[in-house]
Design a protein that fits this description.
The complex is a heterodimer of chains A (about 425) and B (about 300).
Chain A (H helix, E strand, L loop, with lengths): L5 H21 L10 E6 L3 H17 L4 E6 L4 H13 L5 E5 L12 E2 L3 H6 L9 H6 L1 E2 L2 E2 L2 E2 L1 E10 H6 L15 H15 L2 E4 L9 H12 L16 H16 L9 H9 L3 E7 L3 H7 L3 E5 L9 E4 L1 E6 L6 H16 L1 H5 L4 E2 L2 H4 L2 H4 L14 E2 L12 H15 L4 H17 L6
Parallel strand pairs in A: 1-2, 1-3, 9-10, 12-15
Antiparallel strand pairs in A: 3-13, 4-13, 5-6, 7-13, 8-10, 8-11, 8-12, 8-14
Chain B lengths: L16 H28 L15 H8 L1 H34 L4 H9 L6 H11 L6 H8 L15 H26 L3 H9 L4 H12 L1 H16 L3 H6 L11 H11 L3 H32 L1
Classes of the chains: A alpha/beta (about 425), B mainly alpha (about 300).
Organism (chain B): Goodfellowiella coeruleoviolacea
Membrane topology (chain B): Multi-pass membrane protein
Pfam families (chain B): BPD_transp_1
């Protein structure tokens, strides 16, 4: 029996390692293009992640001939970095999720491929099946670049027990709509007297940091304000309107109607433990709150000013740029997209308003409570201006959140907050567009 | 510590086996450090973005970086973090090591409890401290309230306080490393020195000042160098505890590099900022080298 020398073993191990490293490099090179395997990327974790996995599993069950590989990446800038690089390399996944407001940062740079109108028509993914405002934002240069999956507006959560005790509910246990700044402040103050702790909780600072932007953009759009000129080149903030919105925001916290300092997870913890009457947040906390057992319902963001607009973005499905895409591969891709849209009532359970109108109008969706109670907001969406630096997890949101947060925490006056916000937008406007 | 000139030279025989031993490391060093360093410098001279390869733009990115107020403010935040955290991490490490060295009962327990946090990943530490620092119902406010104090400190929400809170969390998290180095150095000091001094009538404090601390000087030098370099690299815990806020008051320069490169897609510009930072770190390293070399050479 010949003893195996240590050197031989080490040499062998090294060779195996090198070989597998090389294999790793080449694994992505040969992209499947025969429509038999699909690669899909998203950024959904938590409740949304579980729902999406269930929907993908349903697709696999219905289409056993297609091998679907789904990859979930971390939400935020990290996801968008990877998506951009994949598109730039031309060897991207077949289909990916993109926030609709991020489209102006992706389509003009050639990071995405346009959809084929004939195939879209074949799968019923056409204009009349989507809300007009949302469909319009899915276009670039006269071509369709995104298929909207949902809209996720900024909404108002309320604790049913607290609001009933405060006399804010009607006979059907629904919140009596609040109109005007005084009614809103009075309702939160009444709720605060019931809880003995907080009226409204909402994120006023923290790592997410975006909520002050969502709140301001909602209120400012309710006054009809614009952020940029129509061509997206210059600042168009109306100082009087902006200050009215900011003054109301400061009034909320300084009067004690709303919590002065809370981060995102803190405000959710307070609301889900029954210590607050109301919460302002995106629609995606439904799953968390249902699990917490707190008696809550949801409604549209109140019409504090002239209309009931609410800040919103939405998820859409896009085709990251690939150098080649065979007809068979395209067909399989459209099949997956159409499947996800047709089954988006499952998706809506997570709180998002389905963009696909056959689903949004269905009895099944309307029966979802509280998820369908704010669906009418799609007629009054406050979407981001269509510029490269806007959209979910964008620099605009982070910078505006940072500029406006001190107005809520009471560390800056509305005028100071506005000056900081304008400086931030001016800096972004002066930054060379990296995608054109 | 230059070699003595009078020392006899060993027989000059070219032996390449030494080189062979370091070759694997040299290859990795060249491939993963030197080459990216050169590539990055090249990128910093272009307007490359994540979406496209850039054109050569000369020193335009560096000009923009030097003109960008955010570069300067974020550099200051990195420096502030280093100035606050370094003395604290060195001193607390030393004090803990002295305590543990003299606390004989259950010494393993003290050693473990001071070192254990160092083993946690940054995400766990950040999560723990974000909850500890919650306004009103956080543990920090709770502890103060138990003492009858309600100072309403905005731990992570007040721009004047947030950096101190991050330094506090960082100290809890990483002091274990300095503590361990000090403890090892303490245990290497021969007992005979202390015995002799005690016989001569030196008390505990006297021995600390004239025996222990001077003998720890080399360790202190090493710890200070390592700590300054580690503090200048701060990113993880700030990204996860405040994301640079409130009001960008804690945004370190590396976070700005990340935002410029990965949120705003401007790889060329982000590279330029990181080379400005590299230049400053090199200056700090050279100054340190001078400061810490002279006393030892004199000795």
């Amino acid at each position: 029996m010949s003893p195996i020398s240590r050197r031989a073993v080490l040499g062998g191990a090294l060779a195996v390692g090198a070989a597998s490293a090389l294999a790793g490099c080449s694994a992505g090179a040969g992209l499947a293009d025969d429509g038999r395997s699909l690669r899909y990327w998203d950024l959904f974790t938590g409740g949304d992640g579980a729902t999406m996995r269930a929907m993908l599993d349903a697709f696999r069950a219905e289409h056993p001939e297609i091998d679907l590989e789904a990859v979930t990446l971390q939400w935020g800038p990290t996801y968008y970095t990877k998506l951009a690089m994949a598109g730039a390399g031309g060897r991207a996944p077949d289909v990916a999720v993109l926030h609709l407001a991020r489209l102006p940062g992706y389509a003009p740079a050639g990071l995405l491929d346009p959809f084929d109108p004939d195939l879209l028509a074949e799968f019923d993914l056409t204009e009349e099946n989507f809300p007009a405002a949302v469909w319009q934002r899915a276009q670039y240069n006269g071509q369709v670049y995104a298929i909207p999956l949902d809209t996720h507006p900024y909404v108002m959560y309320y604790n049913v027990d607290v609001c009933r005790e405060a006399g804010l509910l009607d006979a059907d246990d629904q919140l009596i709509p609040l109109r005007g700044p005084d009614a809103v402040l009075a309702a939160f103050t009444a709720a605060k007297q019931v809880t003995g702790a907080y009226g409204l909780v909402t994120e006023t600072y923290g790592t997410d940091g975006v909520n002050p932007w969502r709140m301001w953009w909602t209120l400012y759009r309710q006054l009809g304000g614009e952020l940029l000129t129509p061509d997206g080149r210059d600042l168009a903030i109306d100082d009087a309107k902006a200050l009215r919105a900011l003054t109301f925001m400061q009034q909320l916290t300084s009067s004690g109607a709303a919590i002065r300092e809370a981060d995102g997870s803190g405000s959710i913890a307070l609301f889900s433990s029954g210590q607050a009457g109301f919460m302002w947040q995106g629609d995606w906390e439904v799953t968390t709150l249902l699990a917490s057992g707190v008696p809550f319902s949801m409604t549209r963001f109140p019409a504090v000013f002239d209309n009931a607009s609410a800040q919103a973005d939405g998820h859409s499905l896009v085709l990251p740029h690939r150098r080649t895409r065979s007809p068979a591969q395209a067909r399989a891709t459209y099949q997956l997209i159409a499947f996800l849209l047709r089954h988006s009532v499952t998706w809506a359970e997570g709180g998002h308003v389905p963009a696909y109108q056959p689903v949004a109008r269905s009895a099944e969706y309307r029966a979802l409570r509280p998820q369908s109670l704010y669906a009418s907001v799609v007629e009054e969406l406050a979407l981001d201006p269509p510029v490269w630096f806007a959209g979910s997890a964008s620099t605009l949101w982070l910078e505006m959140g940072a500029a406006l947060s001190p107005v809520l925490t009471g560390r800056a006056t509305p005028a100071e907050g506005l000056a900081a916000a304008k400086a931030a937008v001016r800096r972004l406007l002066a930054t060379p567009n990296p995608v054109q | 510590m230059a070699p003595h000139p009078a020392r006899t030279q060993p027989t000059r025989r070219r032996d390449w086996s030494g080189l062979l031993f370091v070759l694997p490391f040299l290859a990795f060093f060249a491939l993963f450090l030197v080459w990216p360093l050169v590539l990055g410098l090249g990128t910093s001279l272009t307007d490359t973005t994540l979406a496209k390869d850039g054109q050569f733009v000369g020193l335009a990115n560096f000009g923009e970086a030097l003109d960008d107020p955010v570069v300067w403010s974020s550099l200051w935040h990195t420096l502030l973090f280093t100035l606050l955290s370094t003395p604290l991490l060195v001193l607390v490490g030393l004090v803990f090591a002295l305590l543990v060295h003299h606390l004989t009962p259950a010494r393993w327990l003290w050693r473990l409890s001071f070192f254990a946090p160092y083993l946690l990943p940054s995400s766990a530490v950040s999560l723990i401290f974000v909850w500890i620092f919650q306004p009103d119902f956080g543990m920090a406010d709770g502890a103060l309230a138990a003492l009858g104090l309600t100072p309403e400190i905005g731990w992570l929400s007040d721009p004047a306080v947030a950096m101190f809170s991050i330094v506090l969390a960082t100290t809890w998290w990483t002091v274990g490393f300095n503590f361990l180095l000090y403890l090892a150095a303490l245990q290497a000091i021969p007992d005979t020195y202390h015995e002799a001094a005690a016989l001569d009538g030196a008390g505990g404090w006297r021995r600390l000042w004239t025996i222990t601390l001077p003998l720890l000087r080399r360790t202190t030098g090493l710890i200070v160098v390592l700590q300054i370099l580690a503090s200048l690299k701060v990113f993880d815990q700030i990204y996860q505890m405040t994301a640079g806020g409130p009001e960008q008051s804690t945004r370190p320069v590396l976070l700005y590099v990340y935002q410029a490169g990965f949120t705003n897609f401007r790889i060329g510009y982000a590279s330029a900022i990181s080379y400005v930072f590299l230049g400053l770190v090199l200056v700090v390293a050279l100054v340190q080298l001078r400061l810490f070399r002279s006393p030892e050479e004199a000795a």
